[in-house]
Amino acid sequence: MSQYYNIPRKAEWNYKGSQWKLSRSKIDLFIECPKCFYLDNKLGIKRPPGYPFNLNSAVDTLLKKEFDIHRAKNKVHPLLKSYNIDLVPFKHDMMDEWRENFKGIRVNHKKTGLIIFGAIDDIWVDKKGILYVVDYKSTSKEGKIEALDQDWQISYKRQMEVYQWLLRQSGFKVSNTGYFVYCNGITDKEAFDAKLEFEVTLIPYEGNDNWVDEAIIEADTCLKSKSIPKAGIECDYCKYRDEVNKII
Q1: CB proximity list for 91: less than 8 A, separation 6 or greater
Q2: 3-state secondary structure (DSSP) of residue 23
Q3: In CATH, what number is assigned to the domain containing residue 101?
Q4: In what order do the strands lie in the sheet with 131-139?
């Protein structure tokens, strides 16, 4: 049996009504495809997993360690200085837990009783105590990355907005402005020399979390239904299943 994919998934992960945990990524899945969301969280049949991006995870870990050094000193990171941004890494007793997968920042959604959570990469703060959500991204592509202008990057933006919503629901003052620390692997060097260098770009994003509350309510309604919902228009997984079923 595969160590990565079990059908069905363990029952304790499936929807059980009030106090069930709904993650940031599952909210995004619901928006992308209600059918895949329902199959995953109600029936325990999740999408096949992708391969883990271990290099991306390594970059995330090193960035967290680097910003933690400046967090301990309450100092502005050199990257922010280069952009003339006067923010420092936010100090909080829960910071380690907020960044831990399957824990993260948690909020009890009063309208549904669901526990909404998400693991955040980082938070910065200004002199007025206003928080700025930060997300680390890494890739390797030609050209300088200066904006999130691809259609598929809408999920990055929704991710940022859910984190902003979670912090606001937890009682913090949060700026609409968030930042993506984007690390782009440089491939035009003459040799590898056992070293991969990155160009690091800071990309601001003006978030709007007005959609989050309604999306949670709609996701809860979906899970309470006894009928499997329609697939998302652009869902490749559902298109694949449909074509296979036709042949079978």
Answers
A1: 71, 74
A2: strand
A3: 3.90.320
A4: 88-89, 122-125, 131-139, 177-185, 198-206
* Nearest partner of 43 among 19, 2, 11, judged by Cα: 11
Spell out the per-residue pLDDT of the chain, length 248, in tens.
566 677 777 777 889 888 899 999 999 999 999 999 999 999 999 998 877 777 888 899 999 999 999 999 999 999 999 999 999 999 999 999 999 998 999 999 999 999 999 999 999 999 999 999 999 998 888 878 777 888 878 999 999 999 999 999 999 999 999 999 999 888 888 888 888 888 899 999 999 999 999 999 999 999 999 999 999 999 999 999 999 999 99
C-alpha–C-alpha distance, residues 197 and 78, integer Å: 17
Asked if residue 4 belongs to a domain, the reply is no
Instruction: Please check whether residue 2 lies inside any domain of the structure.
Output: no
End-to-end Cα, the chain, rounded Å: 24
Tell me the residue range of the domain where 227 lies.
Answer: 17-247
Q: Quote the distance between the C-alpha of residue 12 and its chain's center.
A: 23
What residue has token string 């959604």? 109
Cα four-point dihedral sign 188, 190, 196, 198: negative
Split into its structural domains, the chain has a count of 1
Q: Is residue 7 part of a domain?
A: no
**Is position 25 within any domain?**
yes
Of 163, 203, 135, the residue nearest 28 (C-alpha): 163
